[in-house]
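Intended use. Records such as the Tat (Twin-arginine translocation) pathway signal sequence entry shown here are meant for training and evaluating sequence-to-structure methods. They are not intended to support clinical decisions.
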Amino acid sequence: MKHDPQDFHQRLEAHDDQSINPSANPPLATLIDPTRRNLLKGGLGLAALGLFGGSLAACSKASASPLLNFTSVPLQFDPQFDQVLVPPGYRAVPFFSWGDAVEPGAPDWHPDASDDWPAQLKQAGDNHDGMNFFPFEGEEDRGLLVMNHEYVNPPLHPSGVIDQSRPRPLDEVRKEQAAHGVSVIEVRKGSDGQWHRVMDSPYNRRISMLTPMRLAGPLAGLEMMKTASDPAGLTVLGTLNNCATGVTPWGTFLTCEENWHNYFINRDPADYQQRVSHKRYGLASTGTSKNYAWETADPRFDATPYADQPHGGHVNEPHRFGWVVEIDPFDPGAQPIKRTAFGRFSRECAALALGEDGRMAFYSGDDARGEYVYKFVPSGRFDAANPRANRDLLDAGTLYAARFDADGSGQWLALVHGHNGLSAEHGFASQAEVLLNARAAADRAGATPMDRPEWAAVHPRTREVYVALTNNDGRGDKQPTDAANPRPHNLHGQILRFNEQGGDPTATTFTWELFLLAGEARGARTAEGGPVPANLTGTIDGDVFSSPDGLAFDAAGRLWIQTDYDDEEAPMQGMGCNMMLCADPATREVRRFMVGPRGCEITGLAWSPDGKAMWANIQHPTLSYPASDGHSRPRSTTVLVTRIDGGVIGS
Ligand code: FEO
Ligand code: CA
Ligand code: CA
Ligand code: CA
């Protein structure tokens, strides 16, 4: 396959919505009845655009919410739209783009993409994604911004093409590997009141697919983790497809490996069929690996078993991805650590809930059609008085998968060997097998298949957990609907929220409800004048959107929602360019705060400690963003958002 820049991100999105869950876990067939009132305001040019009428609601009604105090940004339908729009009184400026210098000695980025891979190793990676701000202790105006670089786009190369139809040139593969991973950059508020990068900071660091990392936790050093190039099973080169994030109470960054299966291939059909750790995750078995065909230049991505090689060659290399990777941004010399106690799947995020007694949970989605919501509960407690005691807290604990029952209650199903059917007779010889094949373990335990679980976010005071279920164009064919996933052919997604029993992050039961169904306004009409079908109608009180993905709470308890859909594909094109919105959890009002350039997804969100600066990522724009000259390469870019009067964002 040949991929040009225009079709590339659509192809990748299609990969993370494949359904490979073979289980018959029963979703419960109770349809919710959306009764929430929706705003519907008229729009322009609906018929001409062939769009749904409700989509153009550009409302700026008087606020019912004490939390949301900004004017709604209208939807954008211009096919050439190449800006970031924020409300009146705000500004958004490009802050950190693919190719910007990070490490000492990084050359200036060249607009013809002629930088080689050693240069890329020191420059910002591609496809900025999840992001967090880590303040220096006692310093409000200085911090480290740490962000993921999820994957790469073809404009990474001068040709603008990644050609998988022939063996890949090694120097291209190395550049792609160098552009994956994480950036750490120091930022500081200047005497001008604006935030700037500190270009010569000793904390500035790139982590990539070529950075050695330590394997830790229950699987470290086991046979299932050994490869021809790492016979000890303790050291992995790199992290990839880093999507969303988490932070620990002790101030480290958690980066989550999402669609790692797209980088591997197992060409042995008989082996593939019986190897759950490959097949249940959707590795390629014919042709090339789905992303980039690295195996044609770098043998460790060929996961076919070879009996004549130590440890079967690289058959276990895919076992070394799909983890949570802990990075201490304040220790630039420290190796990142892959924490295997978290279990292995296409991990979207690791959102922390910290109880008053120091016990905690990390919530994760597994973003594929019909996959599960998980939480990991460390065995130990956070000890604020003794920071060193927290260092390896993530190496022991319990992984759970969620079952959402129709009556609004829910169960956390422990993925523990010897419980919930996780025994040798069902293919789980040990707890290591359970963690390695967490998807299959959750199948067996009876978790509820969900409409592509993306980010989770935890309310800063109530610890209420919100999960974005982005969409699912397969539900209705293979899986019946259920209370938590109520729409067949669900193209717009929903946000679900739940409360742990007693507010305890370690509880094994919870109550849940749908916070909203995304989609067209109720009562909206199609271009032909008919009613919008029920599967495309939402329950949003306020501004419409599709396909929630990124979720984050600010310190005041506003829920920020970021969208990810193909803005040229029906019916999402009826929503225009991708956007970021803000919701009041109490009133459920939703208001649109940002619209991004054509082709982009908006993802990743961080704030300065005073809430007066916000960073958000514009991922894979297709026009020449952030330059608007029509010639420059589009570049994934972090934008800095501030209020012109210097106030708190959103307030
Ligand atoms: Fe990287 Fe599921 O988003
Ligand atoms: Ca995402
Ligand atoms: Ca997504
Ligand atoms: Ca993405």
